[in-house]
Amino acid sequence: MPNPTADTFRPTPHPWLALAAALIAIKLVAGIADPTVRFFLGDSESYLHAALTGWVPPDRSFLYPMFVRVGAVAFGSLTALVAAQSLCGVATALLCARIAVDLGVAFRYAALAAAIIALEPAQLFYERMVMAESPGTLCLVTTIACGIAYARRCDWRWLVPMAVAGAATVALRMSLLPVVLGFALVPPFAALFARKRPSWPRLALHAAVALVATAFAHAGYQRLYGHVAQTEPTYLRASGTFRLGLVAPLVKPEHLERYGVSRDVLATLGPDLRNPLLREQQLWLPDGLIHTLKRELGDERAEVVARKIAARALRENIPGFLAMQAGSMTDYFVRTVTAPRLEDDVGTRPLSDDIRNAVRERLGHDASRTHATFNPVARYFIAAAPPWLTFCLFALAPLAVAALVRSPREYRAASLAFALATCGLVAGHFLFSHIVSFRYLHPFAPLALVAIAAAFTRRGDRSTSATMRN
């Protein structure tokens, strides 16, 4: 049975409905003030092409084009997509408030955090971007919220939607796969170690439920992807080349020769293979490592070989990989690195003529000048994103740990689950991000605001909960 003391602070639906209405009003005003849609190359082009034609991108989410098809193509308007992604923002803010309450934060402070999340620069900006960030962050926050709800209540039924939301997160943001998989056992683990007298058999059974639900959800996603992409069941057809791009500076000539590729191939590369700052160029430029391998081996064989080369290069030089990733983290403080990245993140490259014409004809949107102008939300993002999102990246884990240290015993399991989830998110970014990119930090901001509320505001107390019926 669920823990009878776990829900001592559960607001009635009425405050939540009022909060939802307030958040919708915030988004409505923001949408009227600035409905501008922006595009990031080449992700936005791939998503739009996929949404308009049914093509399945080999190297990006297949689920987000479906979201675009339902949210924009069905209405013949990209403004409808902004509305749909703004609703994702409302749901994200509400779920963050729910997480905060489950961490023991008084409802009024949780509601304030939700309002700030709704107005947060990255949230507003990516609601206007044809990118998977807004629905992807919603799915990640849903995963964490379900896990924390389990940690508070020890009710196994929360573990099933947690697994499904985790698979949806991966379908939208493949880079979050390690975070989602790592979180699968965190809620039962947190409940076990944070309770005075844990029921070992019960928690072991719940851990088994979490594992089975996660396995089924992810296997189902892989089979669905294989069916849609007409390939074998997998997470992403281009996963091998992405892995190789991550470790490209560690690749040696003998790694290529081991798998039948001439070492002379490396001499034909345009970007400097040893420069970690050029890993993105190795992935996407015609004379980069990935496209060169594909020309030598063909697309399918290149994926297999890339996976093997990446594994061997990493295995042989783990210290070098960790040092390279640490360097990428410190690059967030190097303006010569962050300035061009920010400029690219806000969408300063024009769409191709074909996509621009298709968007005008099918969606009634003129994108000919979007890349050359900065709308109010874009200017807000440019001004606030570098310091704010960098703070969120480096402060998220310490804030969550501070919230854990400060948590009363009845909130300890939920606080431990939250701390482990946020530490996992930071670790995932450290290990699997190949470039400085502020868009990768989009999920950090709402969780950082929850952590601030949990670490520094007054806890929901029994006198407050007495006015909030179970």
Give an overview in words:
- With 470 residues, the chain is mainly α.
- The protein has a domain of 327 residues.
- The protein is built from 23 helices and no strands.
- Helix 1 packs antiparallel against helix 4 and helix 4 runs parallel beside helix 22.
- It is globular, with a radius of gyration of 23 Å.
- The two termini are 16 Å apart.
Topology of helices and strands:
Elements: H1 13-33, H2 43-53, H3 63-71, H4 78-102, H5 107-119, H6 121-126, H7 133-153, H8 159-172, H9 177-183, H10 186-194, H11 200-229, H12 239-247, H13 253-258, H14 279-284, H15 289-297, H16 299-316, H17 318-330, H18 335-345, H19 353-363, H20 376-406, H21 412-432, H22 444-456, H23 462-466
Helix pairs in contact: 1-4, 1-5, 2-3, 2-19, 4-5, 4-7, 4-22, 5-22, 7-8, 7-10, 7-21, 8-11, 9-21, 10-11, 10-21, 12-16, 15-16, 20-21, 20-22
Quote the distance from N terminus to C terminus.
16 Å
Oligomer: single chain
What is the number of helical segments per DSSP (H or I, 4+ residues)?
23
Which geometry do the CA atoms define? globular
Unreliable spans: 4-9, 461-470
Please summarize what this structure is.
This protein is mainly alpha-helical.
